[in-house]
Amino acid sequence: xxxxxxxxxxxxxxxxxxxxxxxxxxxxxxxxxxxxxxxxxxxxxxxxxxxxxxxxxxxxxxxxxxxxxxxxxxxxxxxxxxxxxxxxxxxxxxx
Length: 95
Hints:
- By secondary structure, the protein is mainly alpha-helical.
- It is about 80% helix and about 0% strand.
- The radius of gyration is 21 Å and the shape is elongated.
């Protein structure tokens, strides 16, 4: 039961990564548009802040993704994760 939940969480995180990157890019582009279009100094500062936070967010997301792949390659964990059924077969059975 718990193993199945962990595998579902892993699947959700794998599908969330592209969405997070896309949101970071959209936030950055929104900041660029605000900076270029508006003439008011306050709006330009908001656009500049959004660009900075967008770049920081993308750097964090891509850095963590790279760190995970570095650890996987270092410890040679590239084999696909076992399915919940295969994982349950590895566990000892108790009488």
